[in-house]
Amino acid sequence: MNLILAALLMTATASAPSPCDHLPIIAKYAPQFPYFVAGKRYTMNPALILAVITQESQGNPQATSPVGARGLMQIMPRTAELLECKYDQMYDPDTNIRCGTKFLAALLTYTKGDLIRAISGYNGGSHSTEKSPLLGGRIADNPETTTYVKKVLSYFDAYKKQPCTGGPSWSR
Q1: Catalytic residue among 56, 84, 130, 144
Q2: Under CATH, what is the fold of the domain 17-161?
């Protein structure tokens, strides 16, 4: 019986989605959604998008949060609407990564390239960016957001060095 259980666990683990499965889509949208700081245009590092996907859904395009966020980058209905994305298509990896990358680029532009504040805003939701202290120069005062930012930054650092086995190295 233990051998059967072990085989099932190995099969489940082998078939589990990986954030790295989505590298081609990430590479497609990173240059399409630049962010702007002091009138200069910047291309988002694909490793940052991969880090957000890892933290949000662990690479599962069918992920759904208890509050209704969907897909790889966990897009909420209101965020999808603001970004002119169709919420009912958020389980499609291409659509979700396009929408999430657009949102992250908007946050980086709004925060003038402040990575910590942008990641904090991504976790807090688009509705929180105007009234939250996070845009006053600090991470939102809640443990969930603090932990979220630390994890995304940790994944980002790792992915910049080596995003996935056999993948490119992103050092920007």
Answers
A1: 56
A2: Lysozyme (1.10.530)
Both tokens of residue 48? 């940052």
Confidence band (pLDDT; 50, 70, 90) for 140?
low
Q: Active site includes 56?
A: yes
**DSSP line for the chain:** -HHHHHHHHHHHHHHS--GGGGHHHHHHHTTTS-EEETTEEEPPPHHHHHHHHHHHHTT-TT-B-TT--BTTTTB-HHHHHHTT--GGGTTSHHHHHHHHHHHHHHHHHHTTT-HHHHHHHHHH-GGGTTTSGGGGTS--SSHHHHHHHHHHHHHHHHHHH-SSTTPPP---
Distance from C-alpha of 104 to C-alpha of 169, rounded to nearest angstrom: 21
Beta carbons of 30 and 45 less than 8 angstroms apart: yes
Domain extents for the chain? 17-161
- For residue 6, the model assigns a pLDDT of 39
Contact 152, 100 (CB under 8 A): no
Percent of the chain with pLDDT over 90: 59
